[in-house]
Amino acid sequence: MRFKVNEDVEKAAEIRKAIKENDGYCPCKVEHLPENKCVCDEFLMMNKSGWCHCGLYYKNVEE
Predict the structure, then answer these.
(1) S-S: 29 plus which of 5, 36, 44, 58, CB 3.0-4.6 Å?
(2) How far is CA 17 from CA 11, 12, 14, 44, 50, in A?
(3) pLDDT tens, the chain, 63 aa long
């Protein structure tokens, strides 16, 4: 399994800024819970390939 960062540099920078402004929590999550810290548990536990909610990381379970 591998993660990759969004190749759109501007979008990735925008998302990282939002995460930093949100004290490390996913900007797509309302509650500041430990499981919502970036990289959020929901994304880590996905058993298929795909993007996280905010679009910063892509998970490839094939690799």
Answers:
(1) 36
(2) 10, 9, 5, 21, 22
(3) 789 999 999 999 999 999 999 999 999 998 999 999 999 999 999 999 999 999 999 999 876
Bridge partners of residue 5, in order along the sequence: 57
The alpha-carbon radius of gyration of the chain (Å, integer) is 11
Quote the domain boundaries for residue 51: 2-60
Q: Are 59 and 3 in contact (CB under 8 A)?
A: yes
- Please tell me the distance from the alpha carbon of residue 2 to that of residue 59, in angstroms, as a whole number: 6
Q: In what order do the strands lie in the sheet with 2-5?
A: 2-5, 57-60, 50-51
* Structural domains counted in the chain: 1
